[in-house]
What does this fold into?
Amino acid sequence: MKRIYTNHSLCSGCRACSVACAVAHFGVADDSRGAIQILRDPVLGYEVQTVCRLCDDPECVAACMASALSQDPETGRIRFDRERCVGCWMCVMVCPHRAALPDRKAGKTIICDQCEGRDSVACVAACSTGAIAFVDVEEGANTGGQR
Amino acid sequence: MTGSIGRMRSRTAVVDLSQRSVRYENTPPEVVRNYLGGRGVNVAYLHRLLRPGVDPLSPENVFIIGTGALTGTGCPNSSRFNVTTKSPESNILGDANCGGFFGPKLRYSGVDRIIMLGGAPELGLLKVEDGEVTIHGAGDYWGLDVVETQAALRKDMEPSAEILTIGPAGENRVRFACVMTGVKNAAARGGMGAVMGSKNVKAVVATGGNGLEIADPDGLLELSRQIKDYLIDSSIIKVLGRVGTPLLYEVSNHLGAIRTRNSQDSSFEHTLDAEVVHEHVRKMISCHSCVVHCRHRNVYRGEGPEYTTIGLLGANLGIADTERVIHLNNLVNRLGLDVSSTGGILSWAMELYQRGIIDDSTTGEPLRFGDYDLVVRLIHSIARREGFGAVLAESSQAAAQLNDPEGKYLTAIKGLPQSDPHDCRYIKAFALGIATASRGADHLRSRPTLEVFSLPQELLLEIYGADVDRDPISYRTKEVVVAVHENIYAAIDAVGICKFVCHGFNSPKLLKYEHFSQLLDRAFGAEFSADDLKEIGRRIVDLERAFINREGIRRCDDTLPWRYFEEPLPNGLAKGHRVDREKFNGMIDRYYGFRGWNQEGVVSEERIAEMVAPWVETGSR
It folds into this structure.
């Protein structure tokens, strides 16, 4: 089981990851439509990535009343059935990691699929500082969730 | 030129502030083919829309914010946009390039360019959302500094907004006020903020909602990844990412060419060396999609300092204390003042006082190099146009009031104080570059410094396409060096990518026309060959020249500060060097010849007709 791990101290805040995600999934450059987001405040001085952490018993799946979200028992990935999604954004409300996002343009949810079916994970490939990595959960756990 | 611009969007919002009306137009494809975007399309509009001779601070001036062709696509370092208008500091071309996050957000909001006409009757702001520009009141934000304004607007309008704003200096029409975004990103030079202030516009708030369609998503992602991997492996990118531009301070200082105490000296203390500055840095951060991360988050709640700041607010004012220089950096950024002109004008006044050309009856108090408290007071009074600050706020136009009517002791060209802290008496191509730059004494139009690296002759031949002299103090062939740099920098500013990852600025090995061509193909299916892009760069330089010719610029204006000709450099390796007037004139002759301008430096009518033809061909008014 692999997860996307992030390290905020290495993040320079450039949002190339968010744009790459949106380009890969929607064919549109727009950092607000990436399943990975960078929360940044240049005055308070922080850059923090938010992305799906593959929860056990994910709140988003439990909250989805349209059965658009489910969890793959093998990979832990959240499966998203775009056709079923009605855009109620209950998942957005309940996600404790701010990893389910409202796609205002499409009236749907945006959630990380770990670039399933693609050659590489778009956000990881776009990162220039090594602040994002796609690694086995055991390896990630050994580093305390911070790589 | 032939070839499709593909799906490249160039949507322009024309905002008439006097009428409170907004209309939208797609920039004609022929104009995009010839000027691409950013600085190029901006000057094409400015040349077309602005009547010659208008007062830059009157409602007749035209104020343009335009994103580059690749801005926001997510390819490496594609954050840039240009602000273009008639400068109230130089009274010629005002054009400044800026990074940060605003440019991409403006494009994601469905607008690629905003043209402001007229002036708002009351202080207002523009909101850009989902393809629409709306005008709102901004009275509550009057007087707030750059950081306070952005925080208040995010709270009141949209937390994720990216904001372009002026500080108190712009509100008070200081002739070197910036337009800013974030903590320190600035469209700094030429008083862009004073023009925005004169139009009664405090801010432009972009909130997104549209995004930018990509023609070949997988192709763009793959090419961007390859370019990113190539760039981050480069040694110059690594060092810029570690300590940023302050590394250049040591280079100039070692050479004996760091402008010190208004260029009376040319070497200064090591307290401003990059490693010392870095002790005051918390983290290196990026602009949008940047692979370099050269921005310092300093420990005093600001960003910076850049090389320009430590040079012009440090050495040039005789202030050596590292922490104090960083505090000055943070202060000018919050007030929205251009660092370069602030330092250049203050040091000018200090030398005039030192020489007894002005006294307390003009200044109200003694002006002495190295007096930090004085500098803090003067910066505040400039931004608010109070007391002697009101005189200094006029920039080079204060010459008569400062009893130096010819500006003999001011390091400026065409009314614009020199930006680069590098003293140009040694590297002759650098001197030619600032003498001929379209916006006045400025290094970001050419900055031809590759010569100091002693590159092999074969590599120079490859870069310049000519057998150029590798000796930096030689006057021979420098016209070719300057023109080649000017052309690619103009193209880079039209593409919307940062110069730090591009060919020529610090290294000959970074991104070139060929890379831009491939990126434009993947992003939009746009067909621009490397030669097309090179010609676009040349065309932008020529149209900017035609614009300043129309405002009265001739050969006599393409000159250098008096000191660069008459006084040899006093310190360091470059000691004894100056610029010879006769040999300089020879460089100017050859430069005009190489560019195809006449011996007065004027662009021919035929060339102008060819450059404005794209508007005519499309039938656009």
Observations:
- Residues 54 and 76 of chain A are 6 Å apart (CA to CA).
- The longest helix of chain A spans residues 16-26.
